[in-house]
Amino acid sequence: MPHDNCPSCAAPDLAFAAHDHGPCASDALARAIGILAAKGLRLTPVRRRTLEILLEGHRALGAYDVLSRLASEGFGAQPPVAYRALDFLEEHGLAHRIRRLNAFTACMHMGENHSAAFLICRVCNAISEAPATPSRAALDSAATAQGFTIESATIEALGLCPACQKAPLLKAPA
Amino acid sequence: MPHDNCPSCAAPDLAFAAHDHGPCASDALARAIGILAAKGLRLTPVRRRTLEILLEGHRALGAYDVLSRLASEGFGAQPPVAYRALDFLEEHGLAHRIRRLNAFTACMHMGENHSAAFLICRVCNAISEAPATPSRAALDSAATAQGFTIESATIEALGLCPACQKAPLLKAPA
DNA sequence: ACGTATATGTTATATCGTAACATTACAAGA
DNA sequence: TCTTGTAATGTTACGATATAACATATACGT
Description:
Shape of chain A: globular
Structural class of chain A: alpha+beta
Order of helices and strands of chain A: HHHHEEEEHEH
Radius of gyration of chain A: 16 Å
Number of strands of chain A: 5
Largest sheet of chain A: 3 strands, mixed
Largest interface: A-B, 42 and 42 residues
Number of helices of chain A: 6
Distance between the termini of chain A: 13 Å
Strand content of chain A: 15-25%
Oligomer: homodimer
Strand order of the largest sheet of chain A: 4-3-5
């Protein structure tokens, strides 16, 4: 599969589809660099490395997983080092927090200022970002009916990715 | 407001509406008793008390909040006591886990075997259970498009309840 | 009453997250 | 270039959330 529409294609998402992940990740990094430059924000070494680590796969990593990677590469070894980098990435739309897993994953639609929904495979832990607009619209409407104003929404689904439905425990998409 | 349709009315949900919470809570408890009896499960003292504590308000409580209440009433004082009771209640549809807050709240639609969405007020911490069906349907459709099979979904919105939009920091619905 | 499954309680530890403060790198003006 | 304020990194220390493993007690069917 070409990466013409990767990693920030409009649709469909491709975390579960076979694809050449090298360009997928490096395109995302390039895009992140552009986005931060445009905002006058700095992609410092820790931040950049943190993003690269998240971009290694379409999966979620715990803050402490990221931290041990960073520490082993000479960065600080204390939790705030990882949390600050992850929070920064999340704040600027380059990563997402997956609440179900208390973990983080790289954003696959950087710069699109989207409301995301996540599909989380409980077997191989792969994560795909799905279009959340319809779901979010329905949620907004339910909220409005109660006079509630939504500021941010968490929409996450746990289940089985295509590969794990067929070959449980065997495959792990990049 | 009468509690004809409380706490397990079809719609709309009333966590944010003024209502007589006494019957709201005791009706829910009665319903829980019936549900468990029908399934041959036991609402033991810890479980019952845990549910009562959750039913005191339309809000989420952390496991340790519940634990300290239980402990002060003579139940066990160690985390598993609270987590087991909370997990039991959740497993049988009497309570929900609010991922966003790492907390738990009583279910307001016991026995309806529903997929729930939650509206969480970030000011007064009140929680309302909203109809999740439309939102969930949209999510299912997004999942199907990627060949993903959803087993369970987390749909939570953070924002402002009606009271806190008008009088921030002042009111706290029962 | 007995035996078994269920539930409760405990100790201990794992995992996740943040407050507070010291130090270092950076950019912008004198 | 030097200063100087701001942002970023690093540290210690701690708080909050959650579970594993095992001991004890309770309920229920026979």
